[in-house]
Amino acid sequence: MLRRAVFATLAIILASLPAVSLAYDIKPKDSATAFTAKMRPDILGISTDSTAEAARAIFDAAFKGRLDTKTDIQQQRFGNTAVSYIAGLTSNFPSGTKQTGEMLSTSFTSPASANRAYFIARNLTFAPDQQPSRNEMIKQVMDKYGAPTIVGDQHLYYVYRAGKIVSVGAKYKEPTALEALDRPLDPKAAIKLDGDNGRGSCVAAVKRSLAKEKTLAAMLDEAKAANCDGTLSVQLTPGAAADRIGTAQFTLLDFKRMVSAAKIDGDALAAESKERNPAPQGTAPKL
Questions:
Q1: Would the pLDDT of 5 be above 70?
Q2: How many helices (H) and strands (E) does the chain have?
Q3: pLDDT score for 136
Q4: Strand intervals (E) in 177-279
Q5: Which of the four pLDDT bands, split at 50, 70 and 90, describes residue 285?
Q6: Is there a contact between 182 and 211 (Cβ–Cβ < 8 Å)?
């Protein structure tokens, strides 16, 4: 009797849970991206073309041997299917008096949109005796990414539209970027990043996006409103001395991929729901 009661209770519990589609076969469709093969920025080798699997291999190599590293793998289920995927990766190696800290974080689209990165961030907190010079850091950044769109407020901003870095008229070289770094953004140049159709500046979109959860749903509105396809932001904060860098924060956002992936995911979820709950196929009787 007790066993029968247990099975009856279990049946009631299972019946109350959302239906899960065990056999649903996801057919990946790649989402559009802000970047081209010739102009695809990366952070530590991870670009918005990277899948979760490829990024995880880079994470493992980057933090190998760092025993204090804390790693968080965010697993998520796709809708009501039994398909599980990596939605986010974060590894954090703490800083210390003799140890430079590093945090690497990436968010990915679902398997329906090919599980590719749309947000990548790397934060470095330099130990006091390991802080690089401002000149060296700016040279490293510009050697890797080229001339930025706009510089100021301790940031170098790269704004991408139609596969190219947007220009606002300022032609930055290393000395001019170094000179502009701690100044406010040039308002005449910054206003050129606003859209004529009311879409907002990507500089503002970056700042608001960083304050949100790094899920696709949380960042989607900013992605739709941004007057660009993607951005790379490099923030260089002064260290113990004015000519040294205490922290360096790199952030790569693919707004175009976010919008495209959300559409693909929505269509895939709608198809899965239709497959799981097919409409009645009956016909009207002959009267």
A1: no
A2: 8, 9
A3: 96
A4: 230-238, 245-254
A5: confident
A6: no
Helix, strand, coil % in the chain, rounded to nearest 5: 35, 25, 40
User: Rounded distance, CA 73 to CA 94, Å?
Assistant: 18
By percentage, how much of the chain surpasses pLDDT 90?
A: 68
Q: State percent of the chain over pLDDT 70.
A: 88
For the chain, give the number of residues. 287
Structure tokens at 14: 């299972």
Contacts by 83-89, CB closer than 8 A, 24 or more apart: 83/24, 83/26, 83/111, 85/52, 85/110, 85/111, 85/115, 86/52, 86/53, 86/56, 86/115, 87/215, 88/214, 89/52, 89/55, 89/56, 89/59
Q: What is the pTM of this model?
A: 0.86
Start-to-end Cα distance in the chain: 53
Q: Which of 241, 42, 231, 45 is nearest to 135 (CA)?
A: 241
Residue 189 has pLDDT above 90, yes or no: no
